[in-house]
Amino acid sequence: MSEVLNVEELFGSKVFTLGKMKERLPRSVYKEVKKIMEQGGELSPAAADVVAKAMKDWAVENGATHYTHWFQPLTGITAEKHDAFVTHPDEEGKMLMEFSGKELIKGEPDASSFPSGGLRATFEARGYTVWDITSPAFLKEDAVGVILCIPTAFCSYTGEALDKKTPLLRSMEAISVQALRIVRLFGNKEATKVVASVGPEQEYFLVDREKYLQREDLIFTGRTLFGAPAPKGQELEDHYFGTIRERIGSYMKDLNIELWKLGVTAKTQHNEVAPAQHELAPIYETANIAVDHNQLVMETMKKVAGRHGLTCLLHEKPFAGVNGSGKHDNWSLGTDNGVNMLDPGDTPNENIQFLLVLACIMKAVDTHADLLRQSAADVGNDHRLGANEAPPAIISIFLGEQLEDVVKQLVETGEAAHLLEGGKLETGVSTLTDLEKDATDRNRTSPFAFTGNKFEFRMVGSADSIGSPNTTLNAIVAEAFCEAADILEKAEDFELAVHDLIKEYMTKHQRIVFNGDGYSDEWVAEAARRGLPNIKSMVEAAATLTTDKAVKLFEKFGIFTRVELESREEVTYETYSKSINIEAKTMIDMAKKQILPAVIKYTKSLADTVIAVKEAGADASVQADLLKEVSAKLAAAKEALVKLEKLEQEAAAMEDIKKQAFFYKDEVFAAMTELRAPVDELEMLVDKDVWPIPTYGDLIFEV
Ligand code: ADP
Ligand code: MG
Prior knowledge:
Elements: H1 7-10, H2 18-24, H3 27-39, H4 45-61, E1 64-70, E2 82-84, H5 101-105, E3 106-107, H6 118-122, E4 127-131, E5 138-142, E6 145-156, H7 165-185, E7 194-208, H8 209-212, H9 216-221, H10 246-261, E8 266-271, E9 277-282, E10 285-286, H11 287-307, E11 310-313, E12 327-335, H12 352-367, H13 369-375, E13 397-398, H14 400-413, E14 424-425, E15 435-436, E16 448-450, E17 455-457, H15 467-490, H16 494-509, H17 521-530, H18 538-542, H19 548-556, H20 562-615, H21 621-652, H22 657-685, H23 696-701
Parallel strand pairs: 1-6, 13-16
Antiparallel strand pairs: 1-2, 3-4, 4-6, 5-6, 7-9, 7-10, 7-11, 7-12, 8-9, 12-17, 14-15, 16-17
Helix pairs in contact: 7-15, 10-11, 12-15, 12-16, 13-15, 14-16, 15-16, 20-21, 20-22, 21-22
């Protein structure tokens, strides 16, 4: 019998939840905190002291020795600097653990070593972390002890956002204000805010840690830079939803427990398409908390893997030739009186509020397709988007048959008189219940799919923060809502005006709707005919941040200033160049010190064999042919290596960061591919015992 897990008790045990605050805080302070969480505002210094003390007492009771302001700089991962609760001892040498309201609310890490783009040059190095009262504090427990983590936003001395969270919080306020205007138009007087909810499905790979440690490329870059395909890939489709192996199962169990303790609602787990690939999905929650929790999910995945002799790879494309990993960002908008604005109800054709929301989202996504694409750009994702396994780099919306038909009717006649019905699902087996069928099948190839009562943005990379995608979604939809509300609030005849507006938006932006196969070449051609942007890489996408259109959008809603956008464009170039540089140097190192020497040794043994066989009077032509073939590929590899070394040096010396990033993409990256080809061919020719690193077969089939 396995031990009974009390999940209800476990859940949130390491979180300073609202429930714990209620228990531990005086009623008035608790009410003040709750009010600020719901409506915004500032905690009084006296109340902050009380909250800090209660938080510290709870943390210390649970073993904490330190606290940290936990934040999300532009590196895409989280940052923390620990401070002990230790204070000055009194004259008798006695020390009391303390934590003040000031320390809770504000921190001051040195900002100069975080990526900041132009912001650092223009402004001071001083940076501040500010408590995000809406995301609960939690305890992290590992070898360093128990640390109280306080989720914070990170800004410069002059208030520029240096992180992913500040703009997200700003965008949440913007969408709330504008979406409220929409629901008010339809008579909803009770709602006081609209909340963006997010549920991210996280894909990941697990490999054996011992084997991982034998591959420099995995250690330094998170992906394999060399590697011939294993005899078996994912063609049998036997991994997706397959039985979870014991070792992986025990990992998943531990992972769930750790996440539940942290208040993360880990819900769904399964094997994914590629061998050694898996997925975890939590239940959706308020966007900023979902972003924080997704960071915790990624961190915890890595940490728990170590305990099982495994390594978790979050890179978007750890292995060539099998599927990479993404993160489906499920997004919806709900009022605080329980209305999901993306819920079409039973008769979407008659649900005018829903149709207006849909029309606005079509407009937003069409107008800012470039920005949405950019929001999912990261170095690893360049390998996935458009590579026949993930949506192409072209943004389009999947609505499903039923809604697409409604849109079509509205565009053609201004009315949507009828509705395609789902009907009954008949299995032909009398003992199986006939089910009501959804009116729409799923479409796995669309980057932005309507899935019942939410949109699923499927472009996001597995290793990336979901901060930017959700900031962008909130921003672009806020703009469309704002423009619609500006017109409709002034309308004399609301019914007529809203009807006209829906028709106008849907007609103008119908080109963004595509229900077909997003992986097909026909779609790429069709999208070009429709004039939809196809931005193939992260560096090409970077400039979309600073177009006049983008600056106008983000400045209007106070989400980013021009300067903040420029800094993010700059950081994108830097990040790309640095990452490719590391990859190039790792390849050079592996080729020079591991692969070429192994192949050279192998040619020596082949040559010895040829001589010995000949001397013995037998036919050595097979051995001689193999030697020739291996030597030729060795020469090709050497030539490609020399070229890569030269280009890498040239790239590293470049000064214009934008030109440099493009050079890395067009020249260095191409040279890496040229080096990989002969090396992978050599791997197929050379004796397995001689090959210096674990192969794809070792890595993904023997976990
Ligand atoms: P799929 O079948 O698409 O793989 P999963 O169950 O793996 O679905 O994940 C779906 C995700 O969408 C979950 O995180 C779920 O909580 C989230 N989700 C469900 N409804 C909503 C909603 N209204 N808004 C945002 N996210 C939602
Ligand atoms: Mg899923």
